[in-house]
Amino acid sequence: MLEMALVAFTTFFATIGPVDVAALFAALTPRASAQERRAMAVKGVALATLLLMIFVIFGNAVLVTLGITLPAFKTAGGVLLLLLAIDMVFARHSGIASTTEAEHKEAAQKQDISVFPLATPLLAGPGALGAAVLLSAEAGKDFWMEMIVIGALLAVLAIALLLLLVATQVYKLLGVTGLNVISRVVGILLAALAVQFIFDGLRSSGIFG
Q: What is the pTM of this model?
């Protein structure tokens, strides 16, 4: 159970990226008052939590309905997470866990960014949603394993909310270099987890035996 908790927490922390999201939030809300930032942060995290919880709770059922096997999703999810990890290690930004350049320009013109791009794709992006389904499928029908996944998700989202509330201070404290260092360290851990998911998926598929 401890291993599952560590895997779930690390995976969600890497795919949601609370520190990076907080820095981008500060950059996108330079003219907003402290009260407006607080309202956007709470609303954005609440919406992201609802979306991710839906994927965690019903993700396994969706796979069954679509006829997607767990080994296939483990392998595909591992590849997606590996691509995200590579971007993190090289401090590159892609559409997997962040906004694209076009989305960033559109967000910069919006006064309320709580739904887009904060809730999605920054907090609940393709990487985080894929991780939610993957970890839910990994937990299977084990109630306590499912609770561990949900607990890890809520813990990371709580950290994200805390950092969003102090986003300006976080951005000034860490700077670009500090953010990239954190991103690279977490990216290395995520890469190892992603490769393990791929190995498990291929082994469970029966292709090699």
A: 0.81
